[in-house]
Specification:
Layout: H1 5-18, H2 26-33, H3 37-49, E1 53-56, E2 62-65, H4 74-81, H5 104-120
Antiparallel strand pairs: 1-2
Helix pairs in contact: 1-3, 1-4
């Protein structure tokens, strides 16, 4: 399993916000984190729709976390950006071998453990 750039950027942006006490503009986050502005704008739009971020317009506007870092898990970030967590592609879709696939049980078990771990790691853990 590999986190896409979209998920990596989402997490970096959220860590940036978690370290700040006030809101940050999208431009500030993009510049400080080296993330393309237009791409970050799309990512943050999804994070806002999922309820992880709040945005405020105006001179003192910007983005803030809408949930405390202790309540945001890595799994919730994957979910918010619409990235499936799948060690192999046939976990999320149908396996071409169907029930004859002897590896399926191992892949499903490994995938379950990965999701469990992603659900245990919190944004606050990454700030330490």
């Amino acid at each position: 399993m590999r986190a896409t750039r979209k998920t990596q950027y989402a997490l970096r942006g959220m860590i940036f916000l978690a370290k700040k006490e006030d809101s940050s503009s999208l431009r500030e986050i993009a510049d400080k984190e080296g993330i393309p502005f237009d791409y970050l704008e799309k990512i943050f739009s999804g994070l806002e729709k999922s309820g992880l971020l709040t945005s405020k317009r105006g001179a003192n506007g910007g983005y803030t976390l809408s949930v405390s870092p202790e309540k945001i898990t890595l799994q919730s970030v994957f979910d918010a950006v619409g990235e499936p967590v799948a060690i192999v592609s046939c976990i999320e879709s149908s396996c071409p071998k169907g029930s004859a696939c002897r590896a399926a049980r191992g892949w499903k078990r490994a995938n379950k453990e990965i999701k469990k771990t992603l659900s245990e790691i919190r944004l606050s853990d990454l700030l330490k």
